[in-house]
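Hi all, posting the design record for the shared folder.

TITLE: backbone redesign
STEP: 1 of 1
STRUCTURE INPUT:
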């Protein structure tokens, strides 16, 4: 993932560190992204590669109405010949239109060690309810995912020729998507195991 042992980018991941185990081969680390799934697939498969990797992730973050230390993430990866940022943008526009019925997005430059260039994508949700104001902090815009072109070093590290292949990746939190779709004002409600709240989503499963 283009993260050398002493790279400063390791400090930005909000990793939960746990005590070292006395058992051999038992040291574990709670993942902050599902990117580890993508890397294993890249190591064992040849392009073209198209994957979707859902999973639970853990981050040492303050718990608030908008963020939690445990959440579910979905990451997408596409590697082939001739893949460009334009392909990534078109995919994201299509996704937001199909998922939300909206296609007004904005891409802001960002930094992720495993993509270059990198961006964060916001969707314009509007301000139609009190929940909208709370979730978007009164702007109508909400960040829903990070994305970018796969860094050539990541391709090299998985024995994929960056001179021949390129690709894009994106990742989003499922809970934030659910908050928008179902007008859930506080992400903590999804983790409280309140049956009265959870019963509303029987038809979704």
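Okay, here is what came back for every position:
SEQUENCE:
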């Amino acid at each position: 993932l283009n993260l050398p042992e002493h790279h400063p980018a390791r400090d930005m991941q909000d990793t939960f560190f746990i005590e070292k185990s006395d058992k051999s081969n038992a040291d574990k680390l709670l993942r902050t992204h599902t990117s580890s799934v993508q890397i294993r697939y890249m190591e064992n498969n040849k392009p073209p590669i198209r994957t979707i990797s859902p999973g639970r992730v853990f981050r040492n973050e303050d718990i608030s109405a908008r963020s939690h230390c445990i959440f579910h993430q979905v990451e997408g990866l596409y590697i082939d010949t001739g893949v460009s940022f334009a392909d990534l943008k078109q995919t994201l526009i299509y996704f937001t239109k199909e998922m939300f019925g909206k296609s007004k997005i904005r891409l802001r430059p960002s930094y992720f060690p495993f993509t270059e260039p990198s961006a964060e994508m916001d969707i314009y949700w509007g301000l139609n309810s009190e929940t909208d104001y709370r979730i978007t902090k009164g702007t109508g815009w909400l960040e829903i995912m990070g994305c970018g072109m796969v860094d050539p070093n990541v391709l090299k590290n998985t024995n994929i020729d960056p001179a021949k292949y390129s690709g894009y990746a994106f990742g989003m939190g499922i809970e934030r998507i659910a908050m928008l779709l179902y007008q859930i004002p506080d992400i903590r409600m999804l983790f409280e195991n309140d049956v009265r709240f959870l019963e509303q989503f029987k038809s979704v499963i």
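COMMENT: DSSP finds six helices and six strands in the chain.
Let me know if anyone wants the other runs.
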